[in-house]
Amino acid sequence: MSHATAGAAPAARPTRVQLLVTCLVDSLFPDVGFSVVNVLERLGVQVDVPAGQTCCGQPAFNAGSFDDARAMARHLVDVFDRSDVPVVVPSGSCGDMVIHQAPALLADDPVYGERARKLAARTYEFTAFLVDVLGVSDVGAVGHQRIAYHPACHGLRGLGLELQPGVLLEGVAGIERCPLDEEATCCGFGGLFSVKMSEISGSLLARKIACIERSGADTVVATDVSCLMHIAGGLHRKGSPVRVKHIAEVLAGAAEPT
Amino acid sequence: MTSAPLNFYVRVDLALKDHALGAAMDRATKKLVSSREAGMAAFPEADAVRDHARRIRAHTVGQLGQYLRQFETAVHARGGHVHWAETAEQAVAIVADIARQHDVRSAVKSKSMVSEEIDLNAALARAGVDVLETDLGEFIVQVDKDHPSHIVAPIIHKSRHDIAKSFRGLGATDEDVVDVPQMTAFARRLLRAGFLKADMGISGGNFGVAETGSLCVCTNEGNGRLTTTLPRVHVALMGIERVVPTLADLDVMLQLLGRSATGQKLTVYTNIISGPRRGQGATGAQGAMGAQGATGATDESDGPEHLHIVLVDNGRSRLLGGELAEILYCIRCGACLNACPVYQQVGGHAYGSVYPGPVGAVLTPGLRGLAGWEDLPQASSLCGACREVCPVRIDIPRMLLSLRDESTRLGLTPAWATSGLRLLRRLAVRPKAFRVAQRLAARATRLLARDGWIRWLPGHLSAWTRQRDFPAFAPETFMRRWERRGR
Amino acid sequence: MSDGRLNVLSAIDRQLRLGTLPPSGSLQHPGAFTSRQAAPVDLVALLTRELEALAVTVHREADDRAATARVLALLDERGASRVLAWDPEWLNCPGLSEAIDAHGIVREPCWLPAGAAERRARLAAIDDVRAGLTGALAGLADTGSLALVSGPGRGRTASLLPPMHVAVLRADQIVPSFGACLAAHPHIADEGSNLVLITGPSRTADIEMTLTRGVHGPGHVHVVIIG
Question: Across the B/C interface, how many CB contacts are shorter than 8 Å?
Fold first, then answer.
């Protein structure tokens, strides 16, 4: 259940990928998308961005609207299986959706079941793609931040991303890693949980922020803008100077904070 | 199953505002989590044993009828009785009946979650049987007329001051409550008197072993042994799903239960009971003589004269063969509770059900139906910590999602959420419309935002802004900028 | 309640027949678990280490005479004028019971009458016995446990009621694990109505997660290993 792709790494080093930018990056943090493209192009990988992509359906899935989730997953399959190059997703939760949940949701669909499985087999979360597929740990980035890394839950437990983000951060010259207490404890976002159970979500957020403040970091980094959006919202409400960045921005050596 | 009178959100609110509770939960769950981690780290074959244990549970649950029949036959062969209770009411009636048959006035009880589920103590009190809880935590719960908040450590929500106060109410002196060892000694003295005069002992059952008709009761305090040895009658309550095929299978479970619960290799007492006391004179003929020893070569000297095992269904059979069947693999170690960030924040009482935490969020709606319990599967961020620590690798998040799906189909989810998602779906499958919606949202959020952040969102979305700011939509989406770059 | 039995079993059978398989893959029983761990070399040392980690006091004695002296010393330390004891042939130490008798300590049997009033009276009479003395079926090295089977002459109460429990076993009774014990005793459930694995003194951490020993079962456990 916890593999960063449903299939094996491709035999030859890919030179071309499709980017599944994700609806949150698309709508709220487009710079993250450009950072992903920069990093991949710097590594000699050409990036296509299929035009019809919208949302993978995870918000509906997590909320238990399975019919809506299936419809959105089918649309995603339609958009991404016109080409058979690997798909890269800068999100552990969307990655988990495409790699594990969508094939399960569509398992009984006579047309989309097999297509979803095939798509899952060539879909990779961004850091897993860099480390496991391209075999890269140093993308030539430089930085200056003091970084606390928050391992987003779906990426960590759903996709098994225990090592890849750390390996990549190690390779960034000039940054300092600040250990984070209760690192693997959920930040409290959880999709619609953040609204439906907002008090509990807020309580978990407060706890995560307290750990961040204790860490002495000036920047929180994660593989998922969903967690980052929630954490940043809390930090900003508090008037905290701590910024958030998606790991792609750190790897692109992006100067502007999100 | 008792459910608290307040609604879920009110209970959660009370819990989050209770700082003493927060401190107690923090201390307890941190300790249990690190103990489990240490215990499992020191267990070289942990992963292989977990896989093996899961397969045993899956196999057994898949053949449950066969193993329960085998269990019953084996128990009878050893002189025990097996009773079958479809419902909580039947279970209670069976126990009350046994008490009546044996002229029981007082009973001692070791921990049994099933007994909480069927609200046994209250019913027995009505039948004129005094029931004394002997697990220290459950005893304190009983004294306080409270409810347990954890399935292994019932009073992790209480401080020693709370307990000292309760003990004073029972006549404890300052000396008796000066520290934890003294308080424990006070409880021990009180409870021992109960053990020595009780007519009946009521226990739970951690596992039943089909092949040998054995019942396994695990405790640390020794109350489980006293309860099942001293009184003349022993009644054990066990959920129908708790059976395993053989003693070797029991061994596999035992390797995981203690370690997952508290990091202990085994609980202090692993009590494996195969029938009542054995021997020709065991059912009473020798009582009057008070002889210095048993008379027959095959006579055991102590133990209960009568053993009654009550198998309780109470909604479990309905889960078989379905999406929630996997929850029946649970061995009630409590590891999922300790690991759950939501449980850590709100404690057990917030769930309002006998089984709290991740297991409760599936089991309670599973056994009782979603109506009235639909909030429990929603109270999770699906972080997966529970699945990670479960000794038999139960995929709780999958079942929470399945319950959420069922909630939607039953119309139990709020309309704003379902219509919002319906709208999202309609937009997502029509990219052009999706882009238009993005542009509108960008415009709207930029109106509400200051310095790129929104402090207040209208309607149901205000729940977000109650807790944190929301970022404004970007002036231009990634897709639009990509398009403009002409690539 | 045959209605209950019929209804529960038919509900189970019906659900299993009609339902889809639990999402767990193969439903075959996985068979016995085969450990890849090497068997421990020095079982006595391992058992001793595990017992001591549990706050059990371990006494290694060369022979029956030394073991007898040790047991008598433990009883004297405790000020025990009576001991709730297993029958002589089950103590794993020939001569021990006679020595206890000669020492003037009364060996109480674990006998509990079946009648209600008599049983209460007997329990009241043995309530303040300060020590319990048993043998054991086996020592389980990997968990630091004693496996005790009840049976004629081997009452449960000896290792349960008094505040101190002394268990005597021979070094060759120590096995690597519970699994090994079960393998060596394939009909263990026939040997007595109660098999208990005792892993340390009685304890609780219910109050503020603070560990306290000696709750209902014995708070002091001594294991005498002969040989």
Answer: 322
